[in-house]
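Hi P.,

Sorry for the delay on this. The queue was packed all week, but I finally got your sequence through. Input first:
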Amino acid sequence: MVVQSSSLDLSLAALFAGWAMTGEVQRRLTADGFGELRFNDGVVIQHVVAGPVSITALAERMGVTQQAASKAVGDLERRGLLTRAPSPSDARAKLVCLTDYGEDSVRAARVHRAAIDAELAEEFGADRVAEAAVLLAAVLTRFDAVDAIKGRRVRPPV
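Then the structure:
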């Protein structure tokens, strides 16, 4: 069944399309051996992907308590995506870092997202896909979301 564009407003169409593409990325990651990854892991990983960060800084960036950040990091540590290492500048502090496995999972997700973009361009036309991306980027600008994206402070609305 084809969903009629008139039956969904733009916000729902964008949301559901994002979920569908995210689900496809998850399926592909699972096939690659990254089945324990969850979509919400990105809320933490986005802050660590550029380099090691302290729990304090991570909590600030995520807008949560240090306890909540530490709990999230502990979960990702247990699943082999993050590790804590001593800070070279502060013997009392630990820095949160991606493991090799965590870095591999980030690379794999990027590859799959690019592949999905290419598949959609092939199926629907590169111009249409590019126009959709431009429109959605303009919507992000309209609702002041660009700084959060550029600053890797994206998180689902509360």
